[in-house]
Amino acid sequence: MADDDLPDSLEPATGVPPRDEPPAPPTPKGDLRAVSIIAIVTGVIVIAWYLFIATARTVAEIDQLPWIQIGMWVLAAVSFVCGILSLNARMARELAAAGFIAGVAAGLLSISIGFFSELLT
């Protein structure tokens, strides 16, 4: 007898108001994809520049070589710092590892080729 008071389970619920949407979840901590991408892009630019220097024989003809070299040091520093920051990533760890490797490679190339070579003389 009590079942007669209950609504039929097969009929649509037309008198029930819709529920409020829950708020969107916050951005998780440790999402450093942008930092890792910056480290990779700047690292690739620095590595490509030093490969160009190592393979091209026309470096002496570049008029603005000291300014370009200073720019490469700045890019290598940015890549190195972003690569170190990407070690704190909790998400996209493969991308963070690639950013770290690119940052360290750019930093080491910049130190070994940029400082200890005779490019600026």
UniProtKB/TrEMBL annotation:
Keywords: Membrane, Transmembrane, Transmembrane helix. Residues 1-30 are annotated as: Disordered. It comes from the Bacteria. The chain crosses the membrane at residues 32-53, 65-89, 95-116. This is Uncharacterized protein. It comes from Microbacterium galbum. The lineage of its organism: Bacteria, Bacillati, Actinomycetota, Actinomycetes, Micrococcales.
